[in-house]
Amino acid sequence: MAETTEERAIRLRDVSFAWPGRTGFTLGVAEFSVAAGEKVFLLGESGSGKSTLLSLICGIAQPQTGGVEVDGADLVRMSGPKRDRFRANRIGVIFQMFNLLPYASALENILLPLAFAPERRKTIDDPRAEALRLTAALGLDPGLVGRARASELSIGQQQRIAAARALIGGPRLVIADEPTSALDATAQGAFIDLLMRQVAAAGATLLMVSHDARLAERFDRVLDIAEIAATGRAAA
Predict the structure, then answer these.
(1) Separation of alpha carbons 234 and 174, rounded Å
(2) Which neighbouring-strand residues pair with 43?
(3) How far apart are CA 29 and CA 15, in angstroms?
(4) Torsion sign across C-alpha atoms 96, 102, 107, 113
(5) Cα(145)–Cα(7) distance, rounded to whole angstroms?
(6) Rounded distance, CA 183 to CA 214, Å?
(7) pLDDT at 209 over 60
(8) From edge to edge, which strands make up the β-sheet containing 221-224?
């Protein structure tokens, strides 16, 4: 049976993109899709277009041509504010640099997305209890989460807080952008195992990008970005 749009978490078709005002880079994607519930590992070196591709999938950037569909919605046809609301409600992002608020508590950082995502908020009876459950599942002391500022945490602890923030409220799609780059090999493996368990428990789709091929074996499908995207110099 052919895969329907509703069964896809992500679909890009005939996409071409260049950052406005920059002449050094273009990205082209003929076809790329991720099935709902799939866990996909996207491998690529620095400068290969991984972050640009994620910006298109998250609706942060808009292609000059082509279509971008996420969870059955056409991002290209949405206004900027509507894309922002859609991203907050449907997509949880684990950033490479974590992007935590340094002087807010770990707990406040986890709960922050719910202020902008009513669809995620309404799935939770007790947000604080859910945040503590997630952090406990990710191997953190709930007492520490409630009292410590993000700036007081170790890199590994910050990473787990960033993961809990992305996962809270059960977003349909979780995107992880080089989330293990600051960790050693042992910590990387442990974090991926924890992330996989939480994504599976939520029934979410996972797209993770990394340059580290050692992490790929835990995923349903592994792709090199060169298989799906062509990059080059933009015309001056």
Answers:
(1) 30
(2) 210, 224
(3) 5
(4) negative
(5) 36
(6) 13
(7) yes
(8) 91-94, 173-177, 205-210, 39-43, 221-224
Q: How distant, in Å, are the alpha carbons of 66, 162, 212 from that of 19?
A: 15, 27, 26
CA–CA dist 203, 155 (Å, integer): 27
pLDDT digits (tens, 9 = 90+) for 164-179: 999 999 999 999 998 8
Is pLDDT of 232 > 50? Answer: yes
pLDDT 10s digits, 129-182: 999 999 888 888 988 998 999 999 998 899 889 999 999 999 999 999 988 877
How many angstroms separate the first and last alpha carbons of the chain?
A: 45
Beta-bridge partner residues of 69: 11, 74
Task: Provide the sign of the torsion angle of the four alpha carbons 114, 38, 210, 137, taken in this order.
Answer: positive
Give residue 2's pLDDT. Answer: 43
pLDDT band, very low/low/confident/very high, at 23 (cuts 50, 70, 90): low
DSSP strand E in 55-212: where? Answer: 65-70, 73-74, 91-94, 173-177, 205-210
107, pLDDT greater than 90: yes
Measure the CA dihedral 206/207/211/217, to 10°.
50
Find residue 73's DSSP bridge partners: 70
What's the pLDDT at 214? 86
Taken in order 4, 84, 121, 93, the sign of the CA dihedral is positive
Decide the pairing of beta strands 221-224 and 39-43: parallel
DSSP letters for 18-68: --TT--S-EEEEEEEEEETT-EEEEE--TTSSHHHHHHHHTTSS--SEEEE
